[in-house]
Amino acid sequence: MSLHRRPVRLLALPAPMAVLAVAVLAGCSGGTARARVDPPPAPPADVAGLCATLHEGLPETVAGLERTDTAPRSDLTAAWGGSAIVLRCGIPKPPTMSDPSQDGVEVNGVGWLLEPLKDGGFRFTSGLRLAYTEVTVDKEHAKDTGFLVPLSAAVKKSVPEGISSY
């Protein structure tokens, strides 16, 4: 068996073709990631309006993670770091919200129901607001609740206190 290899022949492309090739290859790179996030079922108009206001006020970074486009695009969803942190606004009241034995945490005046997920991540659902907001965080980023600080500020500013009828 010979270790000799044939030389690789490089193609010489005219300048316009080379520019086009680079542009096509750059378009194939994963520069614009999208997170697949299923929006909640269509909430009532008043809840959807609160969620749209929240969507506009959400931070561009959370826990050092850049905001990611969601697919499908919706004012009811947002994500950071791909799908590391995912927010869905306008969800129906979770059944566990009425369970007094459930754990919760308060961050900057916003109460959150805390539920561990089977994959090691957590789900946080805001309570005592006119729209329920759910935030799921993967196992890697669930080490502390610091990521809830900017999200709580946005919820507090956009979603008034009260009990959602939805």
Structure, explained:
The protein is α+β, with helices and mostly antiparallel strands and 166 residues long. It is built from three helices and nine strands, in the order αβαββββββββα. The protein has helices spanning 15-28, 45-57, 148-158, and strands spanning 34-36, 61-62, 65-71, 77-80, 85-91, 103-107, 110-116, 122-127, 132-137. Strands 1, 2, 3, 4, 5, 6, 7, 8 and 9 form a nine-stranded mixed sheet that branches. α2 packs across α3 (148-158). The longest helix has 14 residues, at 15-28. The radius of gyration is 22 Å and the shape is globular. The model is unreliable at 1-31 (pLDDT under 50).
Topology:
Layout lengths: L14 H14 L5 E3 L8 H13 L3 E2 L2 E7 L5 E4 L4 E7 L11 E5 L2 E7 L5 E6 L4 E6 L10 H11 L8
Parallel strand pairs: 1-3
Antiparallel strand pairs: 2-3, 3-4, 4-5, 5-9, 6-7, 7-8, 8-9
Summarize the entry for a quick read.
This protein is 23% helix and 28% strand. It is of the alpha+beta class and 166 residues long. Strands 1, 2, 3, 4, 5, 6, 7, 8 and 9 form a nine-stranded mixed beta sheet that branches.
